[in-house]
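Annex B. Sample input.
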Amino acid sequence: MTASPDLGTSQLVSPEFGIARPASPDFGIAQPASPDLLRSVFRQHAAGVAVITARGERPVGFTATSLNSVAAEPPLISFGIGTTSSSWPVVSRAGHIGVHILGEHQRELAATFARSGADRFAPPTRWRTGPEEVPVLDGVLAWLVCRVVARVPAGDHRIVVAEAVTGDPAGAGRPLLYHQGRFNALRD
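Annex B, continued. Sample output.
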């Protein structure tokens, strides 16, 4: 953005869009881009919590806050996964994955699937083999089984794009959120 003269009001003009807005007297302390800056900024962003599962020799799964709806026609979703994740080798070859939207009553389940080295599918986790032999978690707000259509390199992660083939949106409860490094519930 560049400064723009005005009739007495300081403004900033975006050269990309040509939009003027009043200049803020306090931008805070700007920091150069870094992994720590990105983490700090996204701690301010509340995100829904999902668990992604896939079938390998043993089922795998991980907690994701990067789940997005991409398109309605065809019905596409996306999520990010680190290439150092213990689930990545299976997800990198999987033809289908499970997407599970967690409820506020499932904080411990979210923590289990986020914990490195945990036996994520051992009790008390309740699950069954679903369509396309994908592990489907019980008691979630909603779930989908999706066919993987792309894996896009993105730094030390991959963005997985998948097309929904079946699912169930009828779970009961309120969504689980991730904010400030913690699992949270919505407040009324």
